[in-house]
Amino acid sequence: MQALGAIEAIAPSRWLSAFVSEFGLAASRPVEPDDQQLIAAVRRGDTSAFEPIVRKYQPRIFATARRYARRESEVEDIVQEVFLKAFQKLDSFRGDAPFEHWLMRLAVRTCYDFLRQHQRNRETAVADLTDDEEAWMERFATEPAGAETDADAARALVQRLLERLSPASRLVITLLEIEEKSVKEIAALTGWSVTAVKVRAFRARAEMRKFLRQMTPDKYL
Amino acid sequence: MRINLSQLERALLSAAKRVPPDERVPYAFEQRVMARLRERPAADSWAEWAAALWRAAVPCLGVAVALGVWAMGPGGLRGNEFSPDSDLETALYSVVDTTTESW
Fold first, then answer.
1. Domain spans of chain A?
2. Tens of pLDDT, residues A91-124
3. A95 — alpha (psi -120 to 50), left (phi > 0) or beta?
4. For residue B41, is it within any domain?
5. Residues B30 and A55 sit within 8 Å (Cβ to Cβ)
6. Percent of chain B residues past pLDDT 90, beyond the cut
7. Are A142 and B1 inside 8 Å of each other by CB?
8. Is the minimum CB–CB distance between A73 and chain B shorter than 8 Å?
9. Do A154 and B26 touch (CB under 8 A)?
10. How many domains would you assign to chain B?
11. Does domain A35-121 have CATH number 3.90.1720.10?
12. What residues of chain B lie within 8 A of the CB of A163, using their CB?
């Protein structure tokens, strides 16, 4: 009755569309196939069914890849690699967990492989602080609570710090401290045991503190 | 003016947390991925089988070498007085010996 009352209150010209939306009769709109249907179609040999999957998940994969690669060309390579692997390994997706979880595991492992392949770049990450970074440090030294104003400089410092870490340490710090995932979640994403994640997290924190000390100008230590 | 490193670490990590990474996708990226998928050669089961055989060759060779070294060594098959062949020989000749004695 409430619904009918609401329809009467609407101008006559909009009555039909209101009726359709109120009673869920919007059946004329094509229903998009869900992940399971698309995956089944790809498995049957319909390669084009993979395109909606790529379209749906690519923003999330781009965001993940941007945590580990700085250059946009590298980010694109990582994302492309993730989807190519997903297509190749689609038969190994059992469907016990959501497809997104399976895809994110693949993405995190691909990012880790990328970090290991580009380990040499870590050496070049040692450079003097820029003027903005120095200014941020100065502000932080005088008033730690007020240093949140120039977040860009702080983020540049974090990026510099993360680039110096070993691949395993960088992955753990990113997942644990920045994305705030639990140890169990990290174990599931990386394929490491819970104990291995804890050990690597401990080492990563120590490594980060060491580099932070090196990065901080002597006058503040 | 000294900096507390733990405090600095917390401040930097919280700055990183505050801004989630960009989810921007380049124009028509999905089409690029699909083009890469389509240009991949179709799976050749013979090539996969040959690759699997090549991969298996190395461990098989390793096992063969290890067995060879063990067999030729002092604790191996050579010089073992209780080897199966000597047992068989003794058993066969014992019949002949018994027959000869009975004549």
1. 35-121, 131-220
2. 899 888 899 999 999 999 999 999 999 887 665 5
3. left
4. no
5. yes
6. 22
7. yes
8. no
9. no
10. 1
11. no
12. none
